[in-house]
Amino acid sequence: MSECGGRGGGSSDDAEDEGGGGGGGGPAGSGSLSAAAAGASSAGRLRRGLRGASLMARRRPELLCGAVALGCALLLALKFTCSRAKDVIIPAKPPVSFFSSRSPVLDLFQGQLDYAERVRRDSEVVLLFFYAPWCGQSIAARAEVEQAARQLSDQVLFVAINCWWNQGKCRKQKHFFYFPVIYLYHRSFGPIEYKGPVSAVYIEKFVRRVMTPLVYVPSQSELLDFLSNYEPGVLGYFEFSGSPQPPGYLTFFSSALHSLKKDYLGTVRFGVITNKHLAKLVSLVHSGSVYLHRHFNTSLVFPREVINYTAENIYKWALENRETLLRWLRPHGGKSLLLNNELKKGPALFLFIPFNPLAESHPLIDEITEVALEYNNCHRDQVVERLLQHLRRVDAPVFSSLAPESPVGLPEPPLIAASPCCNTVVLPQWRSLSRTRNVCELCVNQTARVVGPGSISTPRCSFFEMAAALDSFYLKEQTFHQVASGSTECSNFLSSYSPFRYYTACCRTVSRAMTGLLGSERDASESPATAFSSLEESCEVGPASSVPHIEENRDLFPEADVRSTDFTGLSCRTNKTLNIYLLDSNLFWLYAERLGAPSAARVKEFATIVDVKEESHYILDPKQALMKLTLESFIQNFSVLHSPLKRHLIGSGSAQFPSQHLITEVTTDTFWEVVLQKQDVLLLYYAQWCGFCPALNHVFIQLARLLPADTFTVARIDVSQNDLPWEFMVDRLPTVLFFPCKRKDLSVKYPEDLPITLPDLLRFVLRHSDPAPAPPSSATPPTGECLQSEAVLQQGHISHLEREIRKLRAEISALQRAQGQVEARLSSARRDEHRLLRQKQTLERQHGLLQLHSEQLQALYEQKTQELEEVARKLQELADASESLLTENTWLKILVATMERKLEGKDRAESPTPPEEARAVPPEPPGAPRLPGSTPPSNGSATLASDRSNENRTD
C-alpha cells in the first residue's frame, strides 16, 4: 500500500478537491515532504562541497592557482588547435580553361557533365576528352586532340571535360583511375573507349572508323582489296533496292561498332556488299547473310539457324573464328606483359616500319602481306594465289567464285616428273663418311610435282632444298659404309618432309692432285660463293666451319628469283615457324634500338627475329632495304636446320680508358681484340647486380701491379651489358677465365672451390701460363717412322671415334624404343584425359543441378524464415497484450478487494442506527448535488470518496 501511496502522492490537489483536505491529506503530504527532503539534502550537499572547497582554497591558495592555470592552458591549446586546423584547409582555386578560346574543342573546365550529356544527345558523333589539368599525359594529349579536332570539326563534336575539380559533377559521378580518357559516341551507341596511341593521326583514324564502321564494296577490284588485306574481314550482303533499310542492316552496323568498342585496334574489318553478282563470289545468296573471310582455313557464313542474329553474337562469332595473318603491337609505355606473352608463343619476326594511318595505300605493308601469304600458303590455295596476283598488280582472269570450292568436283592437277637440281658438297672432316668419300653430288628429285602457272624449274637447288637434303643425307650415311673403293657410289633416300620428293647422293674420293686443282681454281675464282673448302690441313689456326656452307648467290643464278617456289608454304615445312608482328617505328623506335637497330638511321625500317627458347635473336642487315626479297631470304636462312645467320650480340659502348688503367674493360666489340692478343689474359666476368664482384677489385688491381704489363693483361667484362658467343658464356658470377699466350684454345677456368685471393691467383696464373720457348732447332724433314707413328695414332683416333659412333647409334635406338613407349603412355594418358573430361562434364552437370536445388532450398528457407518471423512477431504482440491484461486483472482484483473491505466497514459503521431511520433516510448517491442547507457527509463518506479518488488514480 505504501507503493500505491507513493504513486498517489504526486497529485495531492485532486485529493484535496475530493476529500476537502481533511483525512486525505496524510498520504499526499508524506510524499511531498519526502521530495522536499530529497531536494534539500542535494542542495545541502552542494553547499557543503562549495564550503569545503572554499575552506581548502583558503588553507592552500597555491592549489587553486594551479587549477586555474591548468584550465587556462587547456582553453588556449584548444583554441590554437582549432584555429590551426582552419588555416590548413585552403579551398581549391577555381578552374580555368584548358583549351584556348580559338580551339574547336568545347572546353567544360568546370566539369559540367550534365551539359556534356545534353550536347551529346543532340549530335551524331561526339568525342569526350576527360582530363585532369595537372596530368602531364593530359597536357601532352591536348595538342593532339586539338589537331584532330581541326580536321574533323565539321563532322564531329569534340568536348573536353575537367574531371578533377571537386565541385564539378564529373568528379562526383565519374571515378577514373587514369587520365586522359577518351570516349566516343555514335548517336546512342557508346561509350567506345579509345586506348590507342595519343597521336593526332591515330585519333583521327579511329574517329573516322567510328563515323563509318562499314566499308562499302561496290566492285570486284575493291572486293579483292578488302579480302587481300592482312586484317580479318567480315562481309555482309544487303539489298537496298526493295527497302532503304533492309532487315538486319542495323544489327550488322551495330556489330561493327561493337568490334571497335571491344578492340580499339580495329583488327576485324566490316564491309557491305549490295551487288547480288558480287555477293555470289563470296557465297552470299540471301540478303542479310554475313561472311567471314579466312585465307588458309575454310571461310564461314554466319549460322543464323544456330546463333541468334544480334550485334554482340556477330562480333563474338567473328572474333572466335578469325584468322590472324599479321598483328600490330602497340605497347602503352608502362609495365606490361604484351611482348612477353607474344614471345612465349614461339619465334617472332618483328617488323618496324613507318606507318601513317591516314594514308590511302601502304605499299610496304602490301609487300609484307604478300610475304606472309606465301609463307603460310601450305596447300597452294587457288583463292590465295588470286589474292597474291592482285597484290602484285598482275592481271588475271575473273574468277567465278572467290570462296573455296569442294575438292570433290575439281580435276586432279597434272603431275610431271621435274628435272633434278644438284649441288656439289665437300664433306667436313668430322663426318665418318669423309674417310672413304670426301665429295658428294646431292640432287633433289621431285617425282610428283603440281604444275602451277609460271612454275619454273631451276638448274641449281636453293639453300633450303640443299639444307634439307644434307639433313636427310647425314641421317642415311650408313648406307655408304659398304664399299671402300675409289669408285663412285650412289644412293637414293626419301625426304624428311615430302613423300613425293627423294634425294640422290653420289659420293667419291678426290685425289690430292684434284684437290690441289680445286684449290687453284678457288684461288683464281673471283666469287667466293662458288669456291670449295680445301681438304688439305693447314698449320694456321682459324675459324673452321664444321658444317658445309651453301650460299645461294642471286647474281650468279638470276633465274632463281623468277618465282619463290621454295618460300611458298615454308611455315609448314619447318619446325621454326615464325609469328609476324608489325610495330610503328615512328612511335616505338626505342624498342628497335634495343634490339640492334642503328639509332641514327635515315629510314626507320628494321627487321629482327627473336627466339626466346634459343635465347638468341637475329637482325636483318640495316644496309639492306626492307622489301619482299630480303624478307624472304631472311626467313629462309632462319628456317633451315643449319642456319647461316649470325646471332646478334648486344654490347655496351666501347670503353676508352687511358693507358694508366691497370684493368682493361672488355665489351662485345673488343672481346676478340683483347682476348686473342699475343699475351696471357686473365678475364673476370662480373655484373652490376653481383654483390660479391666489387669485393674482388682490389685483388685484381694488386695482381695487375705485380705482373708485367707487356706480357700479361688483366681484364674484366660486364656480362649483364655485353653479349658473348655461347662458348664464352658462364653460369655463375664472379668467374675467372685464363687465356694463355699462343694457346687460346686451351683456356682454363679458375676452380670454384678455391677462394679468389692474390696468392691463389698467382699460383693459378703461373701454373697455366705459357712455358719458356724452346731454342729453335734446325728444320728436319719427317722420317718414315714419324709418318708411320702418326698414321698409327690417327688410326687409333679413328677407331676410338668409330666406337663412340656405335655407342651413339645404340643410344639412338634405345631412345627410339623409349620414344615408342612414351608415345604409348601418352595415348593412354590421352584416353584417360578424355574419360576424365567426360566425368568432369558429368560432374559439372550434377553440380549445376545441385546448385539449382540449393538455390531453391535457399529460397524456401528464406520464405519459411520470413513466415516464422511474422508468427513470432504476432506471438510477441499477443504476449504483450496478455501481460497488460494480467496486470489490469491484478489491479482489478486489488480494487475489488478494497471495495469489499470498505463496504464491509461501512456496513459495520451503519449497523448501530435504528432500522427506521435507515429506512427513512436513504443513502445519498456519491455524485448527487448537495442542497445549501443540508448536512455535510460523515467521515465514512469522506473515506469512501478518498478511496474512490485513489481508485481513479490507480486506473
TrEMBL record:
Residues 90-212, 620-770 form the Thioredoxin domain. Keywords: Coiled coil. Residues 798-888 form a coiled coil. Residues 1-11, 20-29 have a biased composition (Gly residues). PROSITE patterns: THIOREDOXIN_2. Gene3D superfamilies: Glutaredoxin. The keyword Isomerase does not apply. Residues 1-35, 903-955 are annotated as: Disordered. Residues 936-947 have a biased composition (Polar residues). InterPro entries: Thioredoxin-like_sf, Thioredoxin_dom-contain_11, Thioredoxin_domain, TXNDC11_thioredoxin. This is Thioredoxin domain containing 11. The lineage of its organism: Eukaryota, Metazoa, Chordata, Craniata, Vertebrata. The gene is TXNDC11.
